[in-house]
Amino acid sequence: MDADAETQPSRFEVRILIEGITYRYGFETDAKRVQTEWLFQAKKVAERVLFMRKGDEIEVSKGFAEGRGIEEKTRDNALFLSVVAQFNGATATRILKWFGGLMPMHGLHEAGYLGRSIEMLQDTRTRGRLIEFVRSADLGIEDMSVREEKLDPSEMLRFLTEEGRKRFLTEMADAKDVSVAGVHAKFAKGKRIGNVSLDFDDAESAVTRNTGRGQLSLCREINRCPRRSLRPRIVDRGYQVEAVKTIAERIAQSRRRFLLVLATVRARRA
After folding, report:
1. Which of 1, 40, 219, 261 could form an S-S bond across to 24 if both were Cys, CB 3.0 to 4.6 Å?
2. What is the pLDDT of residues 151-167, one digit of tens each?
3. pTM score of the predicted model
């Protein structure tokens, strides 16, 4: 990580092939607005610009007629390509459709992979191999750390039945919240000034480790339970409240599959 780049815009660019035509599309943006944006097209070898954007200025070429007249309709924090697609621009629509067809695959939010990774990090026999693998991915992660804290069940207990509370406190008595963080090097003016530790999304990467059983279950399953009191305007009937509490209880028992059957009766006029 570079301290000098913390306030600079992020840059994204992709080169894609659609129906035999190569497009190069990219943009730079910060937390407030799109700074620059561009789209090039190459039917053979040479590229030609379709549009260029810098600040408030958007220059549209003759080869991108679908973008004419859309410049003034584009907000500072909106991508010009997306706005053109909203007005049924053929090329813009094809490119956005390509993005929509992407299917990202990763293990960052996968319960089984995460639990196994934590076990490997805590095992001196496998920790070194895992760190070496992460470094080889060239993600800027130099090390990984594991933090354990005793699980606070108070938030969860409010939504369980009396039987569920007793079972939860018995089975999860030794449970802990375990979170994983990646350690990155931090630079300023080309020189390393220290390290920074970034959690892998606390809400998703925290796991509950039952030391008594030696089992791992996602804290995410517990966090998915209602965090506030049930609102009478949404759930006001006895069987509805009981259904929500029962599901929360089953989640605490590491159950993951549920079936709710709702019947609606329509009143008829005599």
Report:
1. 40
2. 777 766 776 778 877 87
3. 0.47
